[in-house]
């Protein structure tokens, strides 16, 4: 019987944590361990973890000084004894049969990674209605991940064979850590299987790092993206255009946020504009929204005018 390690990084989520833990310990698949890594919480999260550990011997709790999400996941990986690894964010929760579903999906299709659909804001996230299995080799799976047509870079809607993490860890001190890691795991996998049946409840948390106001920390995305593109040029050259288009889409989104917030760092603005400008013609022929393409084209011609148009558009929409 296969053993699954479920790793849960915990940081200041006292209002959501019990629902999260309950959804894991009540799984229909019982042969699991639950590794709760309390990453320096200063609310009741740590004591909630300890309370559950006294009730269920499958739960292990680690308390550490705050070191970030990547570090917490890596600590969990170092302790994990499972044949398979799953992640759940501590402000989210899962269907009671999620890990049974994913394990069967992986075993039935001889896949190293199994992926399910997700719920977001009580709606089914981007999924197809057929609920059928899609089996991919690495190159096609990376392309699907980057276009976000079925699944994306997130760690938490997937079940992984543990050996995939040999020599792969989440990057410490960076945001967009999933982007840095997931494509490497897919590259090592023999097959990846996806079924859109939603099993994971993703809670949109306005306090999360990636949902906060723009800062230069968001530029981690650029560094990680360029590292990934260099990797793809060697391993999967046909996917590089997809990666460039995703980089442009995020750069456009960053510039829109910068405009909304009157962010004044000229070097950052010029860097993002240069990325859009260099790749805009590829982006125009991508499958992204026409509105994004038009705004990107306008940004590449005149940032100040594009910023003015954006503010006028937002004001008209508010009114």
Short synopsis of the structure:
The chain has 319 residues and is of the alpha/beta class.
Can you tag this structure with a few keywords?
ten-stranded mixed β-sheet; Spore Coat Polysaccharide Biosynthesis Protein SpsA, Chain A; single chain; alpha/beta; globular; 10 strands; 47% helix; 319 residues
Please give a structural write-up.
By secondary structure, this protein is of the alpha/beta class. The protein has eleven helices and ten strands. The chain has helices at residues 17-25, 45-55, 69-79, 98-108, 138-147, 177-188, 220-235, 240-261, 266-284, 290-301, 303-318; strands at residues 4-10, 32-39, 59-64, 84-87, 93-94, 113-120, 123-124, 133-136, 158-161, 192-202. β6 and β7 form a beta hairpin. α9 crosses α10.
């Amino acid at each position: 019987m296969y053993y699954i390690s479920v790793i849960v990084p915990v940081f200041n989520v006292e209002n959501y944590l019990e629902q999260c833990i309950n959804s894991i310990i009540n799984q229909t698949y019982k042969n699991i361990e639950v590794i709760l890594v309390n990453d320096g919480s200063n609310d009741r999260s740590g004591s909630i973890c300890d309370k559950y550990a006294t009730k269920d011997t499958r739960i292990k709790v680690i308390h550490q000084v705050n070191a970030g999400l990547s570090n917490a996941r890596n600590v969990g990986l170092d302790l994990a004894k499972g044949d398979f690894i799953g992640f759940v964010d501590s402000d989210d929760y899962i269907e009671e049969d999620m890990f049974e579903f994913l394990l069967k999906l992986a075993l039935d299709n001889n896949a190293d990674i199994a992926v399910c659909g997700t719920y977001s804001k009580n709606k089914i996230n981007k999924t197809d209605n057929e609920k059928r299995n899609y089996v991919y080799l690495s190159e096609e799976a990376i392309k699907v991940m980057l276009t976000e047509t079925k699944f994306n870079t997130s760690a938490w809607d997937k079940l992984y064979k543990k050996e995939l993490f040999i020599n792969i860890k989440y990057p410490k001190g960076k945001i967009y850590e999933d982007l840095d890691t997931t494509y490497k795991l897919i590259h090592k996998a023999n097959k990846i299987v996806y079924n859109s049946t939603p099993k994971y409840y993703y809670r949109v948390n306005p306090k999360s790092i990636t949902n906060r106001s723009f800062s230069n920390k968001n530029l981690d995305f650029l560094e990680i993206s360029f590292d990934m593109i260099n990797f793809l040029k060697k391993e999967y050259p046909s996917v590089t255009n997809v990666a460039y288009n995703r980089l442009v889409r995020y750069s456009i989104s960053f510039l829109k946020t910068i405009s909304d917030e009157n962010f004044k760092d000229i070097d950052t603005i010029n860097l993002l504009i240069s990325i859009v400008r260099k790749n805009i013609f590829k982006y125009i022929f991508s499958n992204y929204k026409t509105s994004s393409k038009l705004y990107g084209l306008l940004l590449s011609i005149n940032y100040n005018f594009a910023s003015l148009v954006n503010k006028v558009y937002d004001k008209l929409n508010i009114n």
